[in-house]
Amino acid sequence: MSEPPHSLELEQALQHMENGRIAAAAKALETVLESDPKLAAAHALLAECHVMAGKLEESVAELTLAGRLAPDDPGILCQIGWTHANSGRLSAAREDLERSLSLAPDLTESHVGLAFVASRTGDAKAFRRHITEALALEPEHEMARQLLAEYKREHGDFGGAGDEFAALLARDPDDPDYLVAMAAHEFARRNYAAALDLASQAMRRQPNDRQALWLCLAASMAQRSLLRRILSRPILWLLRLGTAGMNAYFLGWMGLCLIGVPLAIGLGYGGLAVVMLNVFVVWLILGGFFLFGWVDRKARKEARAIRLTDGD
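-> structure tokens emitted (312 positions)
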């Protein structure tokens, strides 16, 4: 059987894309299309190049043309479905992805795409079916694993979600997307210190990541709120004790003035001691709040500084 036309050129373009040479891949594909403008596979690959280069309008144009040239190609239908899904057109995405599966039932990317659509529409049954199919076909598929981790987290299975996120992060500890995903997971578990550490690592590697910046600030604020909640009860009881001490002090001196009982003197001085102790402890705690606020402001400045650095 003869090879498809321009298979060698398409393979070279794929290698360029895998190695991050997007401009070289696009140039090679454009050269192929000059000689064969109706080659749907080249248009589909060029659309993917445009996505990687951030040229979304050009990508949609190329992909639309590829779909017209090869309306029954399952790979192109899957790619079109993913484009719809990423643009929020979930009904159109589901239609194209289901059609691609009808043509190629073992196409992993289509199962993952339908799982993604189901996760956004809240269809838990469809999500479980398609994510199970995807992982049966490719057990280590990264997108499928990430979707499964997010699903487990959203449904309260923090242990299972943590295992999935940890496995993803172990594959590439420097990947900012995985760091942000793990930070969001720790934040959902109210493990704010770990969330702040992971989000800070993500910002060092990708300073303009808005989600990482938000997680840094949110975790920092949550830590301060948590400390306030922890300290609020002791302060409340100290204030109550101080009020009781004040009452004992005045009642004691009132009793001394009225009946001259020595016990009243002890009651009065005991109440005064309680009041003085409370004043000291309250001022000590307020000083701790002041110090914590200073540390928190410093942490925010560091977070902003991390955003502005080049990540070195």
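Residues 73-171 form a domain with the Serine Threonine Protein Phosphatase 5, Tetratricopeptide repeat fold (CATH 1.25.40.10).
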